[in-house]
Amino acid sequence: MAFRPTLLAAAIGSLLAFGVGAQTAPTAPAAMASHDGQRPTADTDRTESTGDFNVAGDVAATALIGAKLRNDDKDVVGTVEDLFVDERGAITTVVVSVGGFLGLGARSVGLRWQDVRRSRDGGAVVLLTRLGKEELKALPPYVAQLRRPALRDQAAAPR
Q1: Strands 124-128, 68-70: parallel, antiparallel or unpaired by DSSP?
Q2: Distance between CA 45 and CA 115 in Å, rounded?
Q3: pLDDT above 70 for 25
Q4: Rounded to whole angstroms, how far apart are CA atoms 31 and 33?
Q5: φ, ψ of residue 87 in degrees (nearest 5)
Q6: What is the mean pLDDT of residues 47-59?
Q7: Contacts of 49 (CB under 8 A, 6+ apart)
Q8: How far apart are CA 31 and CA 44, in angstroms?
Q9: Is 20 helix (H, G, I), strand (E, B) or coil?
Q10: Domain around 119
Q11: Domain tally for the chain?
């Protein structure tokens, strides 16, 4: 059991060597000029987080990927894995992982963006669908038709 005190002493020594015990609060950065070169006014010096949304109310794409999809009873029925956007920039398809336990046995299904409703809970996005977990599981699996580079010379391709 002589190993434990030695390990504990090494851990404490490492923490002290890296200055964990002597941290100071970070200083506030100097006021930055706005995009027009003017110093922000007192009203704009203070900001409030809008969470998953910008000030116009648009949701961040990073908030959608990994978001839980809920049914009308607010039960989690899936997790958003991917989004597909058309040439105009509009979301067309939402790929949702359904079923499984701890990521095992789950499968991907595709939903039309029109079948997903967006809501807010404070600064967080909430995604809702009228479909239940069993209805989502009954959908055909989503298989992305991704582009693959064509081989120029099939004979020269490694085997």
Answers
A1: parallel
A2: 40
A3: no
A4: 7
A5: -65, -20
A6: 76
A7: 123
A8: 11
A9: helix
A10: 61-138
A11: 1
pTM of the model: 0.59
Q: Tokens 């790929």, residue? A: 95
**Residue 104 placed within a domain:** yes
* Closest by CA position to 118, among listed 87, 80, 150, 84: 80
In a domain, 25, yes or no: no
> In this predicted model, what pLDDT tens digit does every residue of 54-65 receive, in sequence order?
888 888 888 999
Q: Which CATH number is 116's domain given?
A: 2.30.30.240
Question: Are residues 65 and 80 in contact, defined by beta-carbon separation less than 8 angstroms?
Answer: yes
Q: With respect to residue 143, please indicate whether it lies within any of the assigned structural domains.
A: no
Q: How much is the mean pLDDT over the chain?
A: 74
Q: Give bridge partners of residue 98 from the DSSP assignment.
A: 107
Q: Is residue 31 part of a domain?
A: no
Residues 101-123: pLDDT tens digits?
Answer: 776 788 899 999 999 999 888 88
